């Protein structure tokens, strides 16, 4: 078995959520300590790690970022190396991202390259966001890269396919959290209560009008409520309802429209259902915008390789706090085909591990070009 496939399986067993990646960090540090140390410097930051690799005759420093957190999902993949942390899973491929980064790092440490490289093992991509915080550190300032790249697994593409594009690749995002507070009571006396299940149901329906009626049809937006908590049993009227969701737009200005429409609709719900509401727009992620020259150079390089097919894809409504790195440092992100029947954030996600050596070889060749 390819050693980095083995590493992926080990990491797959220990998914941890944002800023709780203690075992993951320990695993990565242990692996890093097994590498020749003459040309590398390792610095821990929170539950993440920076690794600086000195080049032989550097003219620049190339950054490579891998996110390291898992998701609160109960795995149902049936894999023999399934999560050993019940209720948590690497369901967004960050186990792949880490093992590919370790493969690349091993390659550039053992067969040295001309330029310096900075590897960033970043916590908390799924939330609350680690990129913005990593960017502010003194370590980052000391080892600031001239360019940066990262990848994300893509279940919908075959192994050997990569997809990306110049300019906008991923959306602007904002989490949405709304709490409604009314008055609970006996199910047989609704007139003496203020029922937050009914208010919540109206609110969710009205939120769906934002994209259809307030966003220019030639623009795009998403308002998704992914979680609703309200009520206890069938014969008690719910005093509170709590909705959590996420909003996505292709440009930052449209996000401002979405937020102001949410505020207006929630105000209307307060009046109509005689309740009080609070809104949280949490953990915004800035769009992933690929540097046109760098991504074109990478796409041309990949297209010249015999083992990879390059697809010029459309932008996606996924979010990635890698966007914060790209706001400050020229670079790009690309999708790596892993051919899984089940998609990202699915309990049965099962990416094809053949993609791991494909990615390591591709990037290793690119940073040596
Ligand atoms: C690639 C991917 O699936 N990313 C996540 C990360 C977004 C987290 C954010 N805090 C949110 O849920 O709004 C995604 O859901 O797109």
From TrEMBL:
| Residues engaged in binding Mn(2+) | 92, 94, 126, 152, 345
InterPro entries on file? AcetylDAP_deacetylase (IPR023905), Amidohydrolase (IPR017439), Bact_exopeptidase_dim_dom (IPR036264), Peptidase_M20 (IPR002933), Peptidase_M20_dimer (IPR011650)
Q: To which pathway does this protein belong?
A: Amino-acid biosynthesis; L-lysine biosynthesis via DAP pathway; LL-2,6-diaminopimelate from (S)-tetrahydrodipicolinate (acetylase route): step 3/3
Keyword Thylakoid tagged = no
Q: Relate the protein's function as given in its record.
A: Catalyzes the conversion of N-acetyl-diaminopimelate to diaminopimelate and acetate.
Q: Which family does it belong to?
A: Belongs to the peptidase M20A family. N-acetyldiaminopimelate deacetylase subfamily.
What protein is this chain from? N-acetyldiaminopimelate deacetylase
Q: Which organism is it from?
A: Jeotgalibacillus proteolyticus
Peptidase M20 dimerisation domain mapped to chain residues: 175-267
Top-level taxonomy: Bacteria, Bacillati, Bacillota, Bacilli, Bacillales
Task: Name the needed cofactors.
Answer: Mn(2+)
Q: Does the keyword Membrane apply?
A: no
**Keywords from the named record:** Amino-acid biosynthesis, Diaminopimelate biosynthesis, Hydrolase, Lysine biosynthesis, Manganese, Metal-binding
Q: Where is the active site?
A: 67, 126
Pfam families given for it?
M20_dimer, Peptidase_M20
EC assignment: the record states 3.5.1.47
Q: What are this entry's molecular-function GO terms? A: metal ion binding; N-acetyldiaminopimelate deacetylase activity
**One GO process term, biological-process aspect:** lysine biosynthetic process via diaminopimelate
Which reaction is catalysed here? N-acetyl-(2S,6S)-2,6-diaminopimelate + H2O = (2S,6S)-2,6-diaminopimelate + acetate
Q: How is the cofactor bound?
A: The Mn(2+) ion enhances activity.
Cross-referenced SUPFAM superfamilies: Bacterial exopeptidase dimerisation domain (SSF55031), Zn-dependent exopeptidases (SSF53187)
